[in-house]
Design a protein that fits this description.
globular, about 200 residues, 3-stranded antiparallel beta sheet, 10 strands, alpha+beta, single chain
């Protein structure tokens, strides 16, 4: 993938980006909400291996594992964050996400990158909609999702049957492809466009 916006370049990671991706992986803000990005205690070798994996599946449309794309500031070519794409294992739906290094937060970079990527995906893939999920304690991502045209569909609580306990609540957002006829879910003949509190 290679996309340009007014301030950003969104592109594939290459091996030379391993150090920059390590900085993002261990950024405090990223660790607070996505500690298992790549792998919980990823080494630089794990990060290089992940980049090789991204390279092996790019363009195939097979995203069983999360794929990361570099978000680069045009003015200085610094990698400031990532955009993610996956078929969420527990939801089986195409999911996008974003993570920015803390020092580049609150400048609109995440929404600029996410808008470019969702527009691209809707024109190149037959997705009726894309989803975003996030911890309910992540207000910055919540605002980014709204700014990008995602609508809050549901607030969900996960029950872990293996350990017999409830997990963290999360928000589930959808953004519909403007070229798709799908606009909501139906239960019987009743239109359903999500529930949340």
């Amino acid at each position: 993938m290679y996309l340009e916006t007014e301030r950003l370049i969104i592109r594939d990671f290459v091996l030379e980006d391993a150090d920059a991706l390590e900085k993002i992986k261990y950024d405090k803000q990223v660790m607070d909400f996505v500690p298992s990005l790549i792998k919980r205690d990823a080494t630089i070798d794990d990060i290089r291996e992940a980049i090789m994996y991204y390279d092996s599946v790019k363009g195939t449309g097979k995203y069983e594992e999360e794929i990361l794309y570099a978000v680069v500031l045009k003015e200085c070519l610094t990698i400031i964050g990532v955009i993610t794409l996956s078929d969420a294992k527990f939801l089986n739906e195409p999911q996008v996400g974003w993570m920015m290094r803390g020092e580049y937060g609150r400048k609109g970079y995440a929404s600029e990158a996410a808008n470019a990527v969702t527009d691209y995906l809707f024109t190149t893939h037959p997705y009726d909609y894309l989803i975003v999920v996030m911890d309910i304690d992540n207000p910055a991502s919540y605002q980014t999702a709204l700014k990008c045209g995602f609508n809050l569909f549901e607030k969900r609580t996960v029950y872990d049957y293996k350990y017999g306990r409830y997990c963290d609540d999360y928000y589930y957002f959808r953004k519909y492809n403007p070229n798709s006829k799908t606009r909501c879910r139906f239960y019987g003949d009743v239109e359903y466009n999500g529930r949340h509190s």
